Amino acid sequence: MGSQKAHEHYKQLGSPKWICAPMVDQSELPFRLLCRRYGVELCYTPMLHSRIFLQEEKYRKTHFTTCEEDRPLVVQFCANDPDIFVRAAELVQFQCDAVDLNLGCPQHIAKKGYYGAFLQDNWQLIERIVSTAANKLSVPVWCKIRIFDDVKRTIEYARMIENAGCQVLAVHGRTREQKGKEPGPANWDTIRAVREALSIPVLANGSVSSLQGAKLCLEHTGCLGVLSATHLLDNPKLFTNDPSPDKIVLSQEYLELTKQYPVELTMIRGHLFRLWKQLMSISQMQKLATASHVQEMEQVMLVSNDMERGIVSD
C-alpha cells in the first residue's frame, strides 16, 4: 500500500484528529466508549502481548473486548517475532480497522521481554515484523514509536518503518529514557521533522493536556491527529474543552458502561482513583482499594459525593 492508499485509508476512518492512546489496562472498552462520547474520534486498545494473546484464550477474553460502537479501533500488540505478531493480529483483524506494533513502551518489563522501545536498536527485526504483517494481514499495519536524541536518526528510523509497509505512524516525542512521573516535555519539533520527511499519515503524541494544547500540537507539527493518554485518564472530556468536568457524573457513566461490558476490577479501580483523587478522603480511598464489586465502588462514590457537597462527614 503506497502513500496515497495510506491517506485514503485514514480518510475512510473519518480523518480522526482526537485520539485515545493505547494504555496498559486503561484504554479498555468501557473507557473507550466513555471517551468517544466526549470528542475522541479513534481509540487504541491497551497494549496486548502477542504471544500470550495467541496462546491463552482467557487472556484474549479478558483483555480484548469490543462492540459495534467501538470504531474506528486500532488493536495494539507488542511483539518481537514476525510470525507471532501476524498470527495474533489475524485473530482480531476483522474486529478492528488496523493493528499497531508497539515500538514505544519504555518500561523495564519491555526491556526484560525485548519489545516496545527496546526494539529500536534492531531495525532489521522491526523491518521484518512490519513487512511480514503488511503482506499477510487484511488490515493496515500501524506503528507507534519514540524518538531518538538525534533528529536525523529519528527520521531514518521512521523512513525505515514506512518503507517496510507501515500505513500510519504515531510518534511519541520523547526518548526511551524519558519516562516516569516527570518525563519532561515532548519534542514537537522532532515530530514535525518526521511528519515532513514521511509521505504516510503521521500522528503526534506527548505533552497534550487540553483541547487548546491539542490544537497547538497539530498546528506546530502539521500532523493529522494527536494522541492523549494520561491526561485523558484525568479528564475523559479533554477534547470537548471542558477543563473541569463533573467527575462524579463521569464516574457514574463509566460504571454503567462496565456493567454492560464487564472488565477486571483492577481496571475499574484504576480509573476511579484517577477520577476521584481530589474528591476522596484517605478512608474513602482505602474503601475503594478493597471494594470487591462494582456496587461497592458505587457506594464509595456516593459517599464521596455527599462529602464533597458537605452532606455527610467522614
UniProtKB/TrEMBL annotation:
Gene Ontology molecular function, alphabetical: flavin adenine dinucleotide binding; tRNA-dihydrouridine16 synthase activity; tRNA-dihydrouridine17 synthase activity
Catalytic reactions on record: 5,6-dihydrouridine(16) in tRNA + NAD(+) = uridine(16) in tRNA + NADH + H(+); 5,6-dihydrouridine(17) in tRNA + NAD(+) = uridine(17) in tRNA + NADH + H(+); 5,6-dihydrouridine(17) in tRNA + NADP(+) = uridine(17) in tRNA + NADPH + H(+); 5,6-dihydrouridine(16) in tRNA + NADP(+) = uridine(16) in tRNA + NADPH + H(+)
Pfam families: Dus
Keyword NAD: yes
EC number in record: 1.3.1.-
PROSITE patterns recorded: UPF0034 (PS01136)
Active site residues according to the UniProt entry: 105
Keywords: Flavoprotein, FMN, NAD, NADP, Nucleotide-binding, Oxidoreductase, tRNA processing
Protein name, as recorded: tRNA-dihydrouridine synthase
Organism of provenance: Galdieria sulphuraria
